[in-house]
Amino acid sequence: MKVGKLSGEILQQMVLSTIQFQRDDVLVHAGLGEDCAVIDFGDEVCLVSSDPITGAVEGIGELAVHVSCNDIAANGGTPVGVQIVLLLPEHIKQEQIHVIMEDIQRTAAGLGVEVIGGHTEITSRVKDCVVSVTAVGRAPKTRYVTSSGAGIGDDLVISKGVAIEATAILARDFGHTLPFKITKEEIESLLKQLSVVPEGLIAAEYGVTAMHDITEGGLLGAVREICQASEVGAEIWEEQVPVAPLTQKIAEHLKLDPLALLSSGSMLMVTPHGEGLVARLAQDNIPAYIVGKITEGKMPVLVRKTGEQEHLSTHVEDELWKFWARENK
Question: Which CATH number fits domain 155-327: 3.40.1190.10, 3.20.20.70, 1.10.10.570, 3.90.650.10?
Answer without folding.
Answer: 3.90.650.10
